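Service request form, structural biology core

Requester: graduate student, group of Dr. S.
Request type: structure prediction, single chain
Budget code: on file
Notes: please return the result as structure tokens.

Sequence provided:
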Amino acid sequence: MPQMTKLRLLLSSAHNPASLLLLRKPTSASFSLLFTPTKTLRTISLFIPFSSLSKKNRTHLSRSLTQRNHSSLRETGRREKAAPPMEEIGSVGFNKRRAEGNDKSDRPKKILPLKDRKLNPANTICYVQIMGTGMDTQDTSPSVLLFFDKQRFIFNAGEGLQRFCIEHKIKLSKIDHIFLSRVCSETAGGLPGLFLTLAAIGDEGMAVNVWGPSDLKYFVDAMGSFIPKACMVHTRSFGPSAGSDEGDISGSRKFSDPIVLIDDEVVKISAILLRPSLSKFDAEEGRSQFSELVVKPGDISVVYVCELPEIMGKFDPKKAVALGLKPGPKYRELQLGNSVKSDGQNIMVHPSDVLGPSVPGPIVLIVDCPTSSHLPELLSLHSLSSYYGDMSGNPPETSKAVNCIIHLSPAAVTNTKDYQKWMTKFTGAQHIMAGHEIKNVEIPILKGSARIAARLNYLCPMFFPAPGFWSLQHLNGSAPGYRALSEVPVSKLCESIPAENLLKFHLRPYAQLGLDRSGVPTNNSSSEIIEELLSEIPEIVDAAQQVNQCCHTTPMLNNNVIEEPWLSENTLPSCLEDISRKDMEIVLLGTGSSQPSKYRNVSSILINLFSKGSLLFDCGEGTLGQLKRRFGVDGADDAVRGLRCIWISHIHADHHTGLARILALRRDLLKGVPHRPLLVIAPRRLKRYLDAYQLLEDLDFQFLDCRHTTESSLEAFESDTSEICIENNANGVGLKNQVVNSTLFAKGVPMQSHWNRPDSPVNNSVVISILRNLKEALKEAGLEALISFPVVHCPQAFGVALKAADRLNTAGKVVPGWKIVYSGDSRPCPELVKASYGATVLIHEATFEDGMVDEAIARNHSTTKEAIEVGDSAGVYRIILTHFSQRYPKIPVFDETHMHKTCIAFDLMSVNLADLPVLPRILPYLRILFRNEMIVDESDDVVDASVSAAN
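Core staff response, request fulfilled:
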């Protein structure tokens, strides 16, 4: 079918001159795939002779191809059952319903059910485990897993949790409850992607209970603009609202009393609320400051207490027989704590009659004291007094011994004298310090991704710099502001250890009570990874040398690069004359689609202007972590400080759910420093999310609708700013006299009605002021224009063109500025081709391989070949393909013969403007590096359709 579709589109172009827009520069290579079977494509695309593979690899390769073909057949079957209505732009089809937001099949049709698991009171295995502490680079709060035989509980779900679970084969479908210690981007940033993933599991999807303080409702309301409500129906908040009247929360006893969330035969989980204390500020800053501290949503923190039932004593069968009991089910009932009637005597037999002394159930505390303002409240909690040791003065029968305390509090709090003294009250407890510690940077938690990055760096360091976290390994735990516990002047210190990824504390069986480091990953240095590579692919040594020669020995003539014959049609653009390496680089932070995977994060691109700042195109979950993996902790902080604006292509979660974390970090980094709010340019629906999220924490941003940055809107703004006003009626909101010169949304076109869909009122003066700010920010960054344009994917989907200002070269000659175009998610369309004319670089999505045109049309995405044809049609100089389906875990399927000016993107890949001439030359060498990577690990074979709501 895919081959017939290509033939049909090709023949139709002969009768439709408009369709030639996308095929105006065909090459022989472009048609070489027309009748090539899909299976053959997968086999020859990397030019691997099947006979040259080992017997094991041949077996795995055959199985891999079979799995992929079966996957394609399943998807074809789904499409045949409910084929979406198609329209054409020229000869290129697209899913009209999806483009207009009427693709209801993408959304859960009913409330997602909670799985009814049978409880196992006699759990044989139970432990708490650290998950993702620091996420390599301290970008989010760690998660904690409480594991039982039949139940799973997770505390905190920061960005990267989903990717961590994939890396370490922790099944999210087994999770029953998620508890948040705070409601903010640091602890809850991973929830949107997690909700969408759970909604797509199986045929019906599933849901979990998500617990948090009453502020949770603000977060849930914020997500409602881009996540179906059915995904969030099991969110449960507790405690008084932080925004309620003082009478509701003034009573400290009422506020800090334990709130029992779960109490069954398996575990009892209670929450104790913490709020910032007023007394500290009154004492240190005077009475005048007392009334200025307001408890806002997002300020409330939680201490969780997890209590397991007592462990019954050992059963004595001799005593049971003496009391007239016969071996059988009644023995089991007694072990479960139930009384039974004797078989031989007219008496009731109680558990105490046949069981030895019971052992108190293990207790775990999870403490999050985020600031010094919360510390007085923590220290004065009467509800914790029963868990203190002998010094508390409690009667022995009321005291409860805590076995393990996991401290999520930051080092700035835990290293204080008061906090240390408080820790000593829990005699015999094992303290695990899980706050942000530099030690966590030493061992990458995403070892699969780090391994790929190291191998790519060996092959071509020009485009694949060494990840930033390896540069921190020599610090050996000396984080800025970090003090070892031994340095704290406390008379008596309790035992404590730093948290490590996958560190366990066993609770059951009781004989194993205590720490277990057996699962903690070891530190693989880059040198060890390269040794493995050289052993696996010896010829990579020659390949790396050839790549180095290609990249550094290109002959020069009159400051122009002499292109190779196969690149002769792409003469060096004038914008690259005398280009400096400090002008601009493109950093591909995330190159996968739908959801984070083991090897590729979701969409995000940093336009690094070095001393002039930077911009972000899209900001999927985990963007901050990727920045820190690429630049290191300090380098990423500098990049966030220097952001000029963030541009978001559309509302799907894989393109923007990392935004709040970036904005929150920038707010903290610039606190007390004069600065302007960061510009966020995005579809108007995203403003609803950001406005609702602002109730939790101030994100310090200004919002601008993408529609106000289209070419016609900006021309209207430039022509007569004083006369610009905003229409504010039922026909929609836009700049006065704005003409949407778009073949997609022109009058009479079906999609035009969606473009004019009504929205909330917009203040005229605010829009004009923000447009001025945008113009000023671009000027300071050496940029001439940022122009958005509509594309075909979903409602309010956009691409963007970024144009640099002209400059003078060393000879005083005016050199035109470079131009970058980013497609966002899109089918090939005239607007995208038009915007790409004369572009220096086109960054184009290529979600599907060439043999999956039907799937690309159904999802309103592009194939590899279609993306390249867009670039060819527009005459762009270089094409970078990104946003690959996660069905291609390491490298996508491609045909090298028609990629003469194209390169495949990888996470953390950095393309400097000065290196563009040699960019396509590395492509042939990638097939050597990934020659065995067509073998698909079953755990990595992710089908995009399974998470269509996020795509």
